[in-house]
Write a structure and sequence with these properties.
Strand content: 5-15%
Helix content: over 70%
Oligomer: single chain
Number of strands: 4
Shape: globular
Structural class: alpha+beta
Distance between the termini: 73 Å
Strand order of the largest sheet: 1-2-4-3
Length: 249
Amino acid sequence: MTAIALATTHGIAALPQLAAGAFVSSLWQGLLLAAAVWLCLRLVPRTTAAIRFGVWTAVFLVLALLPFLHAYTGHAEQALPHAAILQLDTRWSFAVAGLWILLSLIRAASLAASGFRLHQIWRRATPLATDAPLLSDAKLRGVQLCTSPDVLCPSMIGFFSPRILIPTELHARLTRQELEQIVHHEMGHLRRRDDWFNLLQKIGLVLFPLNPALAWIERRLCFERELACDDAVLECTRAPKAYAKCLTS
């Protein structure tokens, strides 16, 4: 029993060092990978936003899996003395692991609070009735067009019962063409499953809050997502000047 207890205690004590070592090892590799991909995309300026989004999504997933890979290899190397490339002092290991857990809990609570607020905004929205062809297509897909005083810009909210929310004051000033362009943009998010991808991004930041490369890539994904939907609107409407005027207004 004593031997089992000692082995269990040793295993528990090794977990923070394993986690901290995995984080530090993946940190510099993530920064290097993100910089290399950014440079490659800069060398190919004509790449579409949809392709850039796909590339950054793949890099995001790789960076999210790196700590698990390092933890697995680090666990295998524990049986070999001095085999691990990186070993942290026990106190630093506990500090890094503790900070990791604390920030993850804070981000998880923030994500849950944001989800609750979005649900309340979704419930308070006022549905609109319209007979425009594009908006009819949105209805066929189970999407409701609504106005809301709680949003500052047009947004798509809802995973299973999506609603396109337009600020109440903005809706009063929109022309029919501008309204259809906005709906087409938001429907682009739905077709691309951006709501689910965005949720996965936020969960990734909850699990790995100490990785600056992951946070930077998450912002790139949000940016490229909007550009991809803008490209879809332009491809459909063939009216870049009208859409540019709609965006500025």
